[in-house]
Please model this.
Amino acid sequence: MASEYLKYINNGRDGYVVYIHGNIELKFWYELEGGKYVAIIYIPTVDNWYSKTGITNDQRQAITEFIARQMIKDQAPNSTYEICEDCIGLLN
Model:
């Protein structure tokens, strides 16, 4: 099976992070922030996850954690993250 990876569509202070794993491709909008957050990646809530992504809820945590860890590695190496109900926050 193909490994997971991210690609980025940058539009200045916002854009999309695209999660790819095999034939799965999920696109999430993000925006750069100031203050507490470096960036916020918007994700569907648990209630909307399956209808928006077609992926079961039991995979949601693993996917969102992968996105957070990989985005830090790729884009913000001195950051940490928090996963909220509808977003992933990359913290200063």
Q: What stands out?
A: The first helix runs from residue 46 to 53.
